[in-house]
UniProtKB/TrEMBL annotation:
GO terms for biological process: apoptotic process; proteolysis. The keyword Transit peptide does not apply. It comes from the Eukaryota. The gene is CASP7_5. Residues 43-167 form the Caspase family p20 domain. Residues 181-274 form the Caspase family p10 domain. The keyword Protease applies. It comes from Desmophyllum pertusum. Coiled coil: none annotated. Belongs to the peptidase C14A family. PANTHER family: CASPASE, CASPASE-2. This is Caspase-7. One of its GO terms (molecular function) is cysteine-type endopeptidase activity. Keywords: Apoptosis, Hydrolase, Protease, Thiol protease, Zymogen. It holds the Pfam family Peptidase_C14.
Length: 281
């Protein structure tokens, strides 16, 4: 059994036998609309947080509450408000309730917004995440947003704090060597997905401090969102997550590692505060 203030995986554990610059700043209206997403509304958009901590017996996860997840939820809510999003928080939601939330958000009129963020903190396995009563395909969960007419051409950010399998990741030593017009785009365009781990592996969460991924993400974004685009920030999140090492006191799961992952179909650079971009010489 894992103790308080210990690292935990976001899946059932199997048994193994026993400040921007002060330089001149162009306004977002003068930025190249072909290369930078528009982001100038007083409220940038809606940011959804689904936080599943306690699970029903039908899920098979009722013995594995996600202690520490409320720290992640609160950190994300604070971050999204800082990024000027309208934050909507949902706790302990079933499969049907999660699908209802995604359908509502996909059919909502986002015309007066610049972007959309969806985040879910829960248990998971490869290709699926858990509602409190069972699993949902990640593909099914995100599919409805591909046909949201009011989000066409706008960035859609999805954050998943969940396991993607049952493998532990070991570490290895490394040596360093030297919108004004109508938009017609592919249905899969303008999405970016950030996962707390890579397919096949556990995702770690500290029972007191929260998950490695969300804590790294909130730290990096709070420090850099005023001047850095999302892909650079998520790359820094990858780097920060990779420095963690599990502390479980268990032979099989102690001293394990993790790397988060990014899948981007963005067509432009995504800055949350494009007015702070300093012109490059």
């Amino acid at each position: 059994m894992l103790k308080n203030d210990a690292d935990e995986a976001d899946a059932k554990l199997f048994s193994f036998g026993g400040g921007g610059s002060s330089s001149a700043k162009p306004s977002s209206s003068t930025l190249d609309k072909e290369t930078v997403y528009k982001m100038d509304r007083s409220t940038r958009g809606i940011a959804v947080i689904i936080n599943n901590k306690n699970f029903l017996r039908s899920s098979g996860m009722d013995r594995y509450p996600r202690n520490g997840t409320d720290v992640d939820r609160d950190g994300l809510a604070k971050l999204f408000k800082m990024l000027k999003f309208d934050v909507k928080v949902y706790n302990d939601r079933t499969k049907a309730e999660i699908r209802s939330i995604t359908k509502e958000m996909a059919t909502f009129n986002h015309t007066n917004y610049d972007a959309f963020i969806f985040s879910i903190l829960t248990h998971g396995e490869e290709g699926v995440i858990y509602g409190t009563d069972g699993t949902i395909s990640i593909r099914d969960l995100t599919a409805e947003f591909k046909y949201s007419t009011s989000l066409v051409g706008k960035p859609k950010v999805f954050l998943f704090q969940a396991c993607q399998g049952h493998e532990y990741m070991d570490g290895m030593d490394v040596t360093d060597a030297p919108q004004e017009n109508k938009v017609s785009v592919p249905a899969e365009a303008d999405f970016i997905y950030a996962y707390s781990t890579v397919p096949g592996y556990y995702s770690w969460r500290n029972s007191v401090n929260g998950s490695w991924f969300i804590q790294s993400l909130t730290k990096v974004f709070e420090d850099n969102a005023e001047r850095m685009d999302i892909l650079r920030m998520l790359t820094r999140v990858n780097a920060m997550v990779s420095t963690y090492k599990s502390r479980t006191g268990d032979y099989y799961s102690d001293s394990k590692r993790q790397i988060s992952s990014i899948v981007s179909m963005l067509r432009k650079e995504l800055y949350f505060f494009p007015d702070n971009i300093v012109e490059q010489n």
